[in-house]
Amino acid sequence: MAKVVAISFGRKMSNTDVMLKEVLKKCEEAGHEIQFVRPDDLNIGTCTGCTACVVGIMSGRNNGECAVHPNDDFHIVEDAFYSADALIIGSPVYETSPTGTFKTFCDRLGPSHDLAFLTEAKKERIERDGDKALLPDERVFKPRVGCLLAVGGARTENWTIMTIPVMYECMMSTGVDVIDTHVYYGAMNVQHVLGVPEQMERMDRMAQNIIDALAAGDNDEERTKWRGEDDGACPVCHQSMFKVHQGAARVECAICGIDGEVTVEDGKIRYIFSEKEQARSRMKYAGKLEHRNEIANGAMTQKKVEGLAELKKPYLHIGE
Ligand SMILES: Cc1cc2nc3c(=O)[nH]c(=O)nc-3n(C[C@H](O)[C@H](O)[C@H](O)COP(=O)(O)O)c2cc1C
Questions:
Q1: pLDDT tens, residue by residue, 73-126
Q2: Cβ(97) to ligand 1 under 6 A?
Q3: How far is the CA of 10 from the centre of ligand 1 (A)?
Q4: Cα–Cα distance between 304 and 90 in angstroms, integer?
């Protein structure tokens, strides 16, 4: 038996909630433990950007605990997240993107729960302090698969466009392997998704994808393989959200941060991502490590500006 956790950013018992609960229901019927969490019902403080969490991890002082909101409810979401073998995160579409609470959740999850930051911290601390080392929560290192669901009211899919790509944010630093994503658009056409059987059936297929992935056990390739219904143009994340490098036949996957070559064959555009680029996607450990090293060798060793307090003074009250 594994544990499947759903985190909903939708209205209570509206479309997103019920679609996620359908997935949980099927997973429970297959013998898995389930949990449903609604961050909107909790008291979760916004990240103030103090970076005490990252500095704490990198300097060896702590394991990324939030210095500003030590007693809010974030630990409830964090515990649910870390207890999961499979996660399904669902968000309504607000202005083509996920909700503000979703972003707060990502910011609180962000660098402080980064798999590479914590893996390297663990190694360094064991080397340095041996048995006395202050080590991160072991659940950080547990492999997990994930699914993403976006629910948009608009009749056209194009009004949902940035939602799933942005939702990858909660899976990238935490190291969750995304196996399926789905966008239900046109939700305002019908009072409730319970009146749209094909959408509920799609959730049953998402549940089956989770059940099959969990059944793969230690076979990582089988467990983490893409099971979504659209292969997308990026071979790593299976989405198709690219930055176009102007004047060059190259694109960059917005989710993976990797470069691909653009060719046109028989009037069709092809995107070719080399094996080397695929390996450094931030959805993979090597990509996370590249970022971790960039921070460790940049932000942690940065050059100080002489007389900064004085230099700031003329700006203090501008426009205030
Ligand atoms: C602030 C706000 C912005 C919205 N923007 C979009 C949008 O850009 N695209 C879209 O498809 N739906 C948009 N919607 C509609 C919601 O996505 C829709 O009501 C959805 O069903 C909400 O999910 P829920 O029923 O699970 O709460 C917006 C709704 C709100 C409240």
A1: 999 999 999 999 999 999 999 999 999 999 999 999 988 999 999 999 999 999
A2: no
A3: 9
A4: 42
